[in-house]
């Protein structure tokens, strides 16, 4: 790995701006890496927020320089180990919470062609491959199921708004709807997500509307158009409503009562979507698709799940799931004709998206606001609501680590990383708080009882003033039989004609109470399930706590042992330090002594130096005289100049005692007899040795080593190597050699021959 790694942004910089306000939040980016089994992936997950980008071998920059490794940081990085469910949980669940709270959110995928955008957004119907969109639809309906009003109660006005029908109109519209609706084919085998989010306000009745738009070659088409699939529907215009919100005019918004219906609509729309086989993806999206889920909510009537007919109290939450077409380079796809034109338009709209982001970031930094080029493409115009209105925006970057995608991935990643500093306004709570009264009873609970109540009619009832004992209606299984018995008894007492008057009053009251009781029963059931789940969770938490406590105890005891060991170790280290310091001190003292001794030995004092010089001078003379003149000096002179001892300079010897030998004469083990008159003279108290011992040196003041050599011509040279014995700091004796005397004996026969 190159050390030349560049950090595109530090984590602190990400998503921050100077003027960050609490009503703003940053666009969040999640990066998903496509599974890749080849060699040399150009992208790898470094940690859960970082992706590392390594250039493939041989890829260099335009200037010929090698590309550096780079790291990019995102809100989260997911790789092949993260499942479709993980991606859904991380990217969509909080947006669904936004939606059920009446806020807006935009989730879009972005990346190079074939990087897994459609797979991530839609996937397939199996458990493992089910993508964000189907899971989101399931989760929405799981979370609002008791509050969904009957169909046709809410309706879109066509001007980006909704209204509410009164009950009679709604019933008529429902009848028409039933007549026109076709048999639905539901995928029985599809995976169903069971997730549910909290946060829906039960005081509201709601309806879900979906729409599906395709932006192809910068034209908007309704994928839910009712016309024949073979025909391209007319392109639709994008408008702005009275609240400055952008919407697609004449777009079909289809009301759905459950996720199955919504998925069927999605599948219907997909049959119209333009997908082609390209070199880089067998099913390449040639257009951007925008699937929008609108949750329309209005405060419900007191007892019944029917919205109060006041359009001004309607709150609409919107979640748009966008699958962008992938950016692609013509030289890689080798596209021509229509495909090339499509690619150009795709790239142009993606480029405009980048320019909008850049402008938004610039505007965030400056007081002076420049206009953002939303209108340049249909895609960016549709996104305007989210960037300038209220809503959370999240981008999923899909990136394939194959080396061929390296350069395009770099573009995508750096754009995505910069985008994280774009801020959008946070959604505000628009739902009214109804003061915590009991939620209205969903209509489906009424339907169950209607039939039963009607069966109570035959027996006559009595005086309408006589009150049915409602307070006893609390165990639902007994309610009907009690009413039957009551009616039978009273029917015997009064005539049949009275019965209808009484029944009407009774029926409504009974119906309402039974339904409420039924609804509450279902809530109790749900709470029981929740309680069981919580109990299970508590049991497993308790087991975990127990296990953690055990581990904690064992860690504590191990820690104690370590601490004791550590105490011993500290003590030992202290002792070692003390010994080392003592040793250092001893060495320091010894070194001082040695230095002093050396100073003395090397003539550190002037007296010693002078003596040594004189001594050396004399010895040199002796050698010159013997070597140059080639004849022996007179014996008397020799005695004075032997170089070993001069009583005038007692400081030059190192005698230990007066009785100690002053000169140690070290003779060769096998001396060569020269038969010569020229013989070195030793002082009388010198001691001869052939096998030198340390003790002998110690007791001597001077040392002379006799060394003999014979060359090929029979010449003998005898060397006397002389030195002073000096006691060393360690108690031994060193010899400091200071003169060599040489006597040479030439062979007369050889010398004559040479002449
Ligand atoms: N995470 C993944 N796990 C398994 N298969 C994947 C994954 N991501 C992508 N694929 C497979 O890769 C292929 C291309 O994916 P997909 O069609 O989603 O790419 P795309 O980004 O939408 O391409 P385009 O922009 O051209 O439409 C598909 O066959 C898809 O099943």
TrEMBL record:
<keyword id="KW-0206">Cytoskeleton</keyword>
<keyword id="KW-0963">Cytoplasm</keyword>
<dbReference type="Pfam" id="PF16540">
    <property type="entry name" value="MKLP1_Arf_bdg"/>
</dbReference>
<dbReference type="GO" id="GO:0005634">
    <property type="term" value="C:nucleus"/>
</dbReference>
<dbReference type="InterPro" id="IPR027640">
    <property type="entry name" value="Kinesin-like_fam"/>
</dbReference>
<feature type="coiled-coil region">
    <location>
        <begin position="545"/>
        <end position="582"/>
    </location>
</feature>
<dbReference type="Pfam" id="PF00225">
    <property type="entry name" value="Kinesin"/>
</dbReference>
<comment type="similarity">
    <text>Belongs to the TRAFAC class myosin-kinesin ATPase superfamily. Kinesin family.</text>
</comment>
<dbReference type="GO" id="GO:0051256">
    <property type="term" value="P:mitotic spindle midzone assembly"/>
</dbReference>
<dbReference type="InterPro" id="IPR032384">
    <property type="entry name" value="Kif23_Arf-bd"/>
</dbReference>
<keyword id="KW-0547">Nucleotide-binding</keyword>
<dbReference type="InterPro" id="IPR038105">
    <property type="entry name" value="Kif23_Arf-bd_sf"/>
</dbReference>
<dbReference type="GO" id="GO:0007018">
    <property type="term" value="P:microtubule-based movement"/>
</dbReference>
<feature type="region of interest" description="Disordered">
    <location>
        <begin position="1"/>
        <end position="24"/>
    </location>
</feature>
<dbReference type="InterPro" id="IPR027417">
    <property type="entry name" value="P-loop_NTPase"/>
</dbReference>
<keyword id="KW-0505">Motor protein</keyword>
<dbReference type="GO" id="GO:0005871">
    <property type="term" value="C:kinesin complex"/>
</dbReference>
<keyword id="KW-0175">Coiled coil</keyword>
<dbReference type="GO" id="GO:0005524">
    <property type="term" value="F:ATP binding"/>
</dbReference>
<keyword id="KW-0493">Microtubule</keyword>
<dbReference type="GO" id="GO:0005874">
    <property type="term" value="C:microtubule"/>
</dbReference>
<feature type="domain" description="Kinesin motor">
    <location>
        <begin position="26"/>
        <end position="422"/>
    </location>
</feature>
<dbReference type="InterPro" id="IPR019821">
    <property type="entry name" value="Kinesin_motor_CS"/>
</dbReference>
<protein>
    <recommendedName>
        <fullName>Kinesin-like protein</fullName>
    </recommendedName>
</protein>
<feature type="region of interest" description="Disordered">
    <location>
        <begin position="661"/>
        <end position="687"/>
    </location>
</feature>
<keyword id="KW-0067">ATP-binding</keyword>
<feature type="binding site">
    <location>
        <begin position="111"/>
        <end position="118"/>
    </location>
    <ligand>
        <name>ATP</name>
    </ligand>
</feature>
<dbReference type="InterPro" id="IPR036961">
    <property type="entry name" value="Kinesin_motor_dom_sf"/>
</dbReference>
<dbReference type="GO" id="GO:0016887">
    <property type="term" value="F:ATP hydrolysis activity"/>
</dbReference>
<dbReference type="GO" id="GO:0003777">
    <property type="term" value="F:microtubule motor activity"/>
</dbReference>
<dbReference type="GO" id="GO:0008017">
    <property type="term" value="F:microtubule binding"/>
</dbReference>
<dbReference type="InterPro" id="IPR001752">
    <property type="entry name" value="Kinesin_motor_dom"/>
</dbReference>
